[in-house]
Amino acid sequence: MSDVHVSFNLANDHFNDQEMFLPPAPLLAGAHVSGINAYHELYRNSINNTDEFWKTVASELYFERISNKGLEWNFDHKTGPIFCKFMDGSLTNISYNCLERNIKRGLGGKIAYLWEGNEPSDTSTITYQELLDQVINFSAVLRAHGVKKGDVVAIYMPMITELAVAMLACTRIGAMHSVVFAGFSAESLSARVTDAKCRVILTSDGFYRGAKAINLKEIVDKAVQIASADGVDVTSVIMVEHAKRVTIPEGARPINVGKLSSIYSSYESEMSRLKGTDSPVEWMEAESPLFLLYTSGSTGKPKGIQHTTAGYMCYAYLTTKCTFDADLQNDVYWCTADCGWITGHSYLLYGPLLNGLTGVFFEGVPTHPSPSRIWEITDKHHVTKLYTSPTAARALMAFGDSYLQSTSRNSLRIIGTVGEPINPSAWMWLYENVGNKHCSVVDTYWQTETGGHMITPLPGATPMKPGSATLPFFGVAPVLLDSDGRVIEGPGEGNLCFSRAWPGMMRGVYGDESRFVKTYFAPFNGYYFTGDGARRDEDGYLWMTGRVDDLMNVSGHLLSTAEIESALVAHLKVAEAAVVAAPHDIKGSFPYAFVTLNHGEKLTKELVAELKVLVRHKIGALAVPDIIQEAPGLPKTRSGKVTRRILRKIAEGCDTGLGDTTTLIDENVIKQLISGRNSKG
Ligand code: WT7
């Protein structure tokens, strides 16, 4: 896609703050939250009568036992430990709520997922009843492999319905799943396996992504080896034979897994071996851990974000219901995210199933076999709600509207985006060209840590402004703080924090209590700190301005600059590295690396290629820097701290306006870096 040129520039892509688009009338009419006054009233109620508000939400779900506890929390470390609890003492199970509860209300024969493979000829469907049967069956397999309540199971799988089965089977028996995106490298997988001491890995032989063959089994073998060297022995790998059964894309090589070692077993044979075995639901304490999901941390070591049962469940349920205006009768809902990210957890798996919806489950990529794929699937299944990323929107927009014109997309009602700021022209393209001006476009701001939407328009209520995530979700209290921690009232810009807990918030960093407090609560005592900057306009609308820490957002995925830097310095020829985010028309931003080489070394084409391979191996393709520039030295303060502020400016292409450089040890370094960048053209 690198040869695609787009005619807009993210940095200059600003619209008038005042320009508003009202929710289309048909959406307003039947919405769960209809009209902005209804939103304001419910919002006030969620803040003033928090427990009552959430009790009503919980009453729509099944609890085996209900306590009288509501939302309890403390964000002020001076008055005691930081914590959050929701419905403490209650018992429930999220997998039961997704499956049995819906089947009991007559949805057994309803399609849970319409699966679309990488190749358009590969499709299948699964009903709620079939999903439950497979979940019970697979939970018996997990139990037979020694998995019990409280264990962590690693899942490294392509986007196939067995992945949904695996996640729901874990939560059925109270085991935490830790899904690792199947684009991560063996080293990244093993780091996650080791951190949570996983004994069991669920995977598949491999899959095709576009025309590319990915042999997952090879990667798992390597990860198991590394984990074992680090003291964690994986005892079972359960492998779905998926690559074997699908259509091989034109030009791709077939995937061959070779010999399987004794820790391997086949998903299919284990399922038939234990078919019909009873495997009851494990009733879980409201606050017992539900799953782990690793996300980048600014120190470079990924954090295992820990969510809990009742709070996450109620939050995923209500946000899906309101933000996508869930319609049990008519919806075909499609979230294009991979289950390796939180969006796939909350809005492909749990949220839609809790709402009893039919969803599209897509294995492929938006551009294969052509950039019409998303619109073709939309028409084929009459998709009503589409949830995707600004990067996908920008990439498809860059291919031109001819790929849209062969489709009608008339079924669409709501288009959602997530993961990164959406620039107004991509927003307008979704609104006008994709949605034919009859859809609400919801720009949802949230994080792995928040479990669900925090700042988002509601499609039948909130007047939309292109590029703004608009107003807080129910129960959410955003606050902007200046660098001294003073609250900014009214219009202004600052650090985005939340002053109250919400049920779906993370409860900890796995195995590292102090990191939880240090990362999210120490920066501004009394508040949860997001790591993002935001601006509030005259109407009280919030506009995200990007990360204010050492994380960068590439195509909607968070990466740690420190993690990429440590991958680069692992090369024997590299003495030092500094990585910053530089603006990119499609990906939002990309990693730009400055490397200082050991004496006598030169940054040849071969070395650049070696460094890229190294980052790919240590982290994954996502993290590979688009540009690697040789730096004779890095700009440092007298105390030895690299000044990223200046490197960021250089990477952006600025020659002047670098700010105060007088505190640097060697101002000459900057001139060299600028001329080095310019000589790259
Ligand atoms: C970070 C969280 C939330 C699921 C996917 C990413 C950025 C997310 C938006 C948005 C502007 C956004 C923030 C946030 N972000 N959504 N609508 N507008 N920025 O989850 O990997 O935990 O990343 O993504 O920087 O902190 P994540």
Give a concise summary.
The protein is an alpha/beta fold. Helix content is 31%, strand content 22%. The chain has an 8-stranded mixed sheet with strand order 12-11-8-6-7-14-15-23, with helices on both faces.
Structure description:
With 681 residues, the protein is of the alpha/beta class. The chain has 21 helices and 30 strands. It has an eight-stranded mixed beta sheet with strand order 12-11-8-6-7-14-15-23, with helices on both faces. Strand 16, helix 12 (342-354) and strand 17 (358-362) form a beta-alpha-beta unit. Mean pLDDT is 94; it is low at 1-11. Residues 295, 341-343, 418-421, 443-448, 469, 530-532, 544, 547, 553, 556-558 line the site of 5'-O-[(S)-butoxy(hydroxy)phosphoryl]adenosine.
Features of this protein?
binds 5'-O-[(S)-butoxy(hydroxy)phosphoryl]adenosine, seven-stranded mixed beta sheet, alpha/beta
List the helices and strands and how they pair.
Layout: H1 25-30, H2 36-48, H3 50-58, E1 71-74, E2 83-86, E3 91-92, H4 94-98, H5 100-107, E4 111-116, E5 123-127, H6 128-144, E6 152-156, H7 161-172, E7 176-179, H8 186-195, E8 200-204, E9 207-209, E10 212-214, H9 216-229, E11 236-240, E12 264-266, H10 267-273, E13 284-285, E14 289-295, E15 303-308, H11 309-323, E16 332-335, H12 342-354, E17 358-362, H13 373-381, E18 385-388, H14 390-398, H15 402-405, E19 414-418, H16 424-434, E20 440-444, E21 478-481, E22 492-498, E23 508-509, H17 513-520, E24 528-536, E25 542-547, E26 551-554, E27 557-560, H18 561-569, E28 574-584, E29 588-597, H19 605-618, E30 627-630, H20 644-652, H21 668-679
Parallel strand pairs: 4-17, 6-7, 6-8, 7-14, 8-11, 11-12, 16-17, 16-18, 18-19, 19-20, 29-30
Antiparallel strand pairs: 1-2, 3-13, 4-5, 9-10, 14-15, 15-23, 21-22, 22-24, 24-25, 26-27, 28-29
Helix pairs in contact: 2-3, 6-7, 8-9, 11-12, 14-16
Bound molecules: 5'-O-[(S)-butoxy(hydroxy)phosphoryl]adenosine.
